[in-house]
Structure formats: structure tokens, C-alpha cells
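Minutes, project check-in

Agenda point 3 was the complex the collaborators sent over. CS summarized: two entities, 435 residues total, and the question is how they sit relative to each other. Sequences were read into the notes so everyone works from the same version.
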Amino acid sequence: MNALLTLWAQWFPELWKGFVLSLQVTAISLLLGIALGLLLALGVGARGKAIRYPALIIVELGRGAPALILLQYFYFGLPSVNLTLTSFWAAVLALAYCTAAYTSEIIRGGIEAVARGQHEAADVIGLNRVDALRYVILPQALRVALPSLLGFSIMMFQASSLCFTIALPEIVSRASAIGSSTFQYMPVLVLAGLMYAAVCAPASLGVAALERRLAPGVQPAC
Amino acid sequence: MNDILMMLLAGVPWTVGVTVCAFAVGVVLGFPLCALRMSQVPSLRVLGAALVLTLRSIPPIVWLFFIFFGIGGGYVTLSPFVAAVVGLGLITAAQMAEVYRGAFAAIPDGQYEAAHVLNLSAPQRFFDVVLPQLVRISIPTAATYAIGLLKDSAVASTLGVADISFQAYQVSQQTFQGLGVYSAAALVYLVLSVPVALASRWLSSTLQRRISL
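CS then shared the predicted structure for the full assembly.
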């Protein structure tokens, strides 16, 4: 046990750097992705076909392709049209696209959950469509979508481990490098797994608790 | 372009194989895990919840490496395919346990009460009353998960399983046509997921008619 802790203490600073990088990639791609996801949700819900169909195609491609393929598309694919990205930006863009595609559906579900009367009421009190969205519909829709969005964010943090395949020095890359140089795969992978679990397990429990609190029927009076 | 597509298609059996085997492992192991999770004994319940949470909180790639390099490297020799199936199968089991748990809650109490009143034995109650309804309720969620698994199975390529992603990487390195290769690979995955979605819709509507509720 002591030998194991000594090894872990020795490897931890190295893995920590990877952990910080994983968090950065996840955070930036979530910020970009959710903003884009909101636009796509509005696009898919748009009345005009010229907006609706392209938005649908973007969403379905993003949801249909594995995240791994998206990452490699941005990292190994784009250089063939002379657009070379660093592994960091390839990771951010690929994961942001993936986030946008998935969260647009979550947000659309939230928008559809807003009662019809809210749209009509916003119309009646003379709000234009942008203001109705901004002040009436979206605050309620995002509240409904919040637990799913947070749950998805946890998945994205885990998905950032796929950046190993495009040589981004995140947790798994560093753990794998330590493993191949020391042949101590088991302990280093356990440490890497624990670092993910330390974030994801409490976060999942928190999201589940939030979901129960926001569940319809037990909403606080407002 | 034709050569590229043929090479990608050579990966399809591996992708389908990993997905189907891992899903089968998950569907079966999900039952004991769900039983543990819903046990009357508090310590078993906590154990079940902890297992599910642990399996879901660590990324698939870490599980796969752990099984392939950690366990496979020292104690027993595992092929990349087996390691991928075991790793993804365990994660699927955790997901399926949650799906079953939700489905159990969705079966109306009257069904249990009626089964009791009819004096059915415990196996009859489970296999003839609960299980058919459980399966029908679980299908849509399980199918959504299966489509997700088809895409997640791409991580098996990191162990060297010659699936679609693995082929895409090889071909793109050989031809320097990464953009076309990866677009084609994405389309192959998309096309593969369509039959799963259709099958789920068909199965669920057929069962709906046959198992009334």
C-alpha cells in the first residue's frame, strides 16, 4: 500500500497537468458548444425551410458521428485542405461541435416544454419575437433543460479523454506514457480513473439531486 | 475513392461485433446489477449504487486501457476485441441497470397486486407478468443507448481492434485524404445506426400490440 502511495505521489503532478488541460478543453468546448447549440435549437425550430433544413443536417451529422471520428476529422482531416490546427484547438472545435449538436436537442426539448399559453401571453403583451424568447421562453426552457445540460457536461468531461488519440497531453495520454515507460499500467490507470471519478461521481449525484428538486410537481411556488 | 470506401467497410464487422457483444453482456449483467441496486438489504443497495456510479464516472477509454494493459498485460492475456467487449459491456451493464430500474417503476402497482391475487409463484410473477412489460418499456431507452454504444465502440480502435475508426486512421495516413476519409467514416456510422433505430421502433410497436397495458 505504501509503495503504491509513493508511486502515486510521484506521478500525481504529471497527471494533474493533464487534468487541468482536460478541464480547460471541456470548459471552452462547452461554452462554445452550448451557445452554438442554442442557435441550432432556434434554427431547427425556425419556420423557414432555408434555415431549418441546414440546421437539422448540422445537428444530425454531429449526433450521428462518433466523437472520436469528429476529433480525428478536425486533427487529421483538415490538414488535407491545408488547414492545420494544434491538437488543443482541434479538440476544442470537435468537442464544441459535438456539444452543439447534442445540446441543441436538449434545449429544443426545453423550449417545447414551455406551455403554449406562455407564447400567447408574450404575444398579447406586445413583446416582439426576440424579446419573447429572451424574457419569457428561454428562461423557462433553460430551467427545464438544466439537469440534462449538466449531465451532458459530465459526459463531455469524460469524452475529453478521447483527445488521447490526437496527441493532446491530457490525463489519459500522460497516464499511458507513464504506463509504457514504467510498465506499471495498473496503478497509473487506477490513479487516472480516480481523478475522473473524483469529478464525475459527485457531479452526477448533484445533478440527480437537482433533477429531483426541479421535477414537475414539487416546484416551489412562484 | 472506391478503395477508400472498401477499406472502411472492412471495419464494419468489427464495429458491429464489438457493439453487439458488449450490448449482449450489458443486457444480461444489467439484471443482477439492477437487483443489487434495488435490494432490500441496505448494504447491498449501497454496493449496487456504488458499482453503477463508478462504472459511469470513469471514461470508457480508461476502462479499456485498464482491462487491456492493466489486467491483460500481467495476469492473463486478452485480445483487444475481448478487452473492448468486457470494458464496454460493463459500462453498458451499469446503464442497463438504470434502464431496468426505471422500467420497474413504470410498471403499475396493480400488475404486481393482480399477480399476487392470482396466486402466481415468484418465478411466474417475474417471467410471465413483470419481464414482458419490463422488456417493452425498456426497448426505446435501450435502443437509444445501443446507437450511442455503436459510436462509443470507436474507442476499441485505440486498443487496435480493426473497426471503422481504426481503418479510417490507417487509410487517412496512407492516402493523405483525411477529409474525405473521415467524412465517409462518419457516414458509415450514421448508416449503421439507422437500422437500429428502425428495428427499435418496429419491435416496440409490435410488442405494444402483443403485450397489452
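Noted in discussion: Chain B has a mean pLDDT of 90.
Follow-up: revisit at the next meeting once the mutant set is ready.
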